[in-house]
């Protein structure tokens, strides 16, 4: 049975990201290899991965080789650094600016969890007042988490350089102190 994963901000090939994001790698080559390894440790070939942008800052030819080594069916939400990724469009199931996803989950309202996917954090999103989730990247852990919001930065810098499964995200989000602002009436 396939699983669903979410991730963001790998910045494959980006020579300065180790310094900018204080990553623990001694070189961009070490970083790329470790990111590939950690991705494939969790993601199987039949799994789905929603990548929320900034796949790589590298030539299209080099990024194509990296993408071919990654397991899973990859869906790309465009970030602000996607020139090479756009040249590798056939590797992605689709490429969008924004996406609203429904995941079957018998514990969720009406048996489906609604999730808004966007590269950037949004203060309020479609049906957020009903408890829908928002996943984003871009900030490399630099944006303070709101413990009362059902949103989360799923960038690799925030999660030990691994993608997160739907179940891992669910566990994190449901621990938040979220309260619906909607007042139900009889």
From TrEMBL:
<protein>
    <submittedName>
        <fullName>Metallophosphoesterase</fullName>
    </submittedName>
</protein>
<dbReference type="InterPro" id="IPR029052">
    <property type="entry name" value="Metallo-depent_PP-like"/>
</dbReference>
